[in-house]
Amino acid sequence: MQLNHYLNFQGQTEQAFNFYKSVFGGEFAMISRYGDLPPEEGVTLTEEEKNSILHVSLPINDFTVLMASDVNDQFCAPNSVFTQGNNHYISINLDADEIDEAQRLFDALSVNGQIEMPLEKTFWGALYGAFTDQFGVKWMVNCQLDAE
């Protein structure tokens, strides 16, 4: 089994995923837009909505794919409202194998975000830091340090 992260945005998916692609590298495995949907009775999309991301997936490594979409109220469950940051109890944790990679990920992903804990050595023997990125996604970067 593979556990992947699926994020939702409100019109920022393409911007966010181009940013994540610049950090992690690789290519999108899939990208589709609401305009690619077959016509459906009762559903009318503006040109802006047609250009919004229906689904995007970015493989991070052999075991992880980061996925997302732009929320469109016409396709949401009744009484379901998107609120940026309502995922504040959920964070994506990145376990880096090397200190330099942990620092690179922390520095790159936290650009224009809000650092909650700087990347630093912790009492549990790891290099650890936490932040919310510029798109409202919470991240933790962790790198286990060798025993001294």
TrEMBL record:
<dbReference type="InterPro" id="IPR028973">
    <property type="entry name" value="PhnB-like"/>
</dbReference>
<dbReference type="Pfam" id="PF00903">
    <property type="entry name" value="Glyoxalase"/>
</dbReference>
<dbReference type="InterPro" id="IPR029068">
    <property type="entry name" value="Glyas_Bleomycin-R_OHBP_Dase"/>
</dbReference>
<dbReference type="InterPro" id="IPR004360">
    <property type="entry name" value="Glyas_Fos-R_dOase_dom"/>
</dbReference>
<protein>
    <submittedName>
        <fullName>VOC family protein</fullName>
    </submittedName>
</protein>
<feature type="domain" description="Glyoxalase/fosfomycin resistance/dioxygenase">
    <location>
        <begin position="3"/>
        <end position="141"/>
    </location>
</feature>
